[in-house]
Amino acid sequence: MAAHEVGIDVKAVMHNYDDHLPENLIERFTTKKRTPSTWGEAIDYRIGKQKVKYGENNLNGSMQTPSGPLDTSRFEGQRKRR
After folding, report:
1. What DSSP string describes 18-56?
2. Which listed site, 41, 57, 60, 65, has its alpha carbon 20 to 30 Å from 82?
3. Which range of residues forms the domain containing residue 7?
C-alpha cells in the first residue's frame, strides 16, 4: 500500500495456504514447537510468535495503515512513470 501511494510498481508472488513450503525456507519459519510444511502454516507460526496481545487484537494481521506524514524523498528515483 505504501509503495502504491508513492507510485512504486511492486511485483509480488502470492501463495495459497496449502501450497508446499520450499525446503530452503522451512528453517526460517520453524518454531521451537512446530515445523511448517505449507505457506499457510508458515504464516500461522510466524503470527504465533508475535506478542499475545497483538494476536488477540489482530487475528488476521493488522489492517491499520501508518499514520503521520509519509517521507517520499528516498523514493524519488524509483517513482513509476505515468
Report:
1. TSBPPHHHHHHH--SS---SBHHHHHHHHHHTS-HHHHH
2. 65
3. 2-78
Strands (E), the chain: none
Domain count, the chain: 1
How much is the pTM? 0.54
Average pLDDT of adjacent 10-residue blocks, the chain of 82 residues: 82 91 94 94 86 68 63 57 46
Give dist(CA 39, CA 18) in Å, integer.
6
**CA 67 to CA 82: how far, in whole Å?**
26
How far apart (Å, rounded) are the C-alpha atoms in residues 2 and 13?
A: 17
Query: Is the CB of residue 21 less than 8 Å from the CB of residue 35?
Result: no
DSSP 49: T
d(CA 21, CA 68): 37
3 state SS of 59: strand
